[in-house]
Amino acid sequence: MSEFRIGASKARAVLAALTAESAPGPVEPVLRAVPDPAPEEPTPEHGEETRAAADAAPVEESSQDTTAVDPDTVPAVAPVETASRTLARWPLVLLAVPAFVAVWSGWVGLGELTGFGVVHPLPGIANRFSINSAITLPVGVETYAAYALRAWLAGGLPVRARRFAKWSAIGSLTLGALGQVAYHLLSAAHVTRAPWQITTIVACLPVAVLGMGAALAHLIHDTHPEA
Q1: Alpha carbon of 48 to those of 52, 71, 202: distances in Å?
Q2: What 3-state DSSP class applies to 119?
Q3: Helix, strand, or coil here: 100?
Q4: Would you call 70 helix, strand, or coil by DSSP?
Q5: Do the beta carbons of residue 152 and residue 165 sit within 8 Å?
């Protein structure tokens, strides 16, 4: 193999030329827009994931549970006791029985003193059928008083009906009391025939009771507004 020998000065020149050719030129910098990296969410630990899954499981189960519940298996809620309780009605029987005896005997006795008595309402048809007309006084007056009192105190009735029932009930009870007073005064004085003033008032009671009863029934069922 042949060898070439060159001087030191030439060798340096050749080396410098080779170095200058192989050296790269200056590279201009290039700017690029790089988005900021999204913040990384902290990865929950295994224990926290387990607790979150356990908490979410009942909610999902309750929203999908559509099974009908048997009402017999649901425990009944105890009723709350209120201050107002329903009063027993049996004491009214004890109050009504003696009052009925006293009022009935008073009206019948007053009717006999004012011309009421045994009559034959069906002559020529049933001659043997007779009735004491004195019983019409306690039946008519006291029954209407109770009916009007009930209409007055009941709710849901027209205003005109309740107003009429109020004053007619008070009037009927007042007449009933005055009738009892008149009978006992006449009976205590051994009077066998009542004065004409008392007889006139007592004779008008059946007609007055019939009129007030018909008027109250009409007002109760009247649906027209008050003018």
Answers
A1: 6, 39, 96
A2: strand
A3: helix
A4: coil
A5: yes
Q: What is the pLDDT of residue 77?
A: 52
Identity of residue 68: A
- Which residues make Cβ contacts (< 8 Å) with residue 212, sequence separation at least 6? 144, 148, 168, 172
Q: Confirm whether pTM is higher than 0.70.
A: no
Which residue type sits at 16? Answer: A
Q: Is 122 left (phi over 0), alpha (psi -120 to 50) or beta?
A: beta
Tokens at 209, concatenated: 């009771």
DSSP string, 73-96: TSPPPPPPPPS--PPPSHHHHHHH
List the end-to-end C-alpha distance of the chain, in Å, as a whole number: 145
Are the C-beta atoms of 141 and 111 separated by less than 8 Å?
A: no
| Residue ranges of the chain whose pLDDT lies below 70 | 1-6, 20-84, 225-227
Cα–Cα dist 141/183, whole Å: 15
Which residues pair with residue 164 across a beta bridge? Answer: none
Helix locations, the chain, DSSP H:
8-22, 46-64, 90-113, 136-153, 159-188, 196-220
Task: Determine the Cα–Cα distance for residues 82 and 223; give it in Å rounded to an integer.
Answer: 36
Looking up tokens 């069906």 gives 122
Q: What are the angstrom distances between the C-alpha of 95 and each of 92, 143, 180, 210?
A: 5, 16, 17, 27
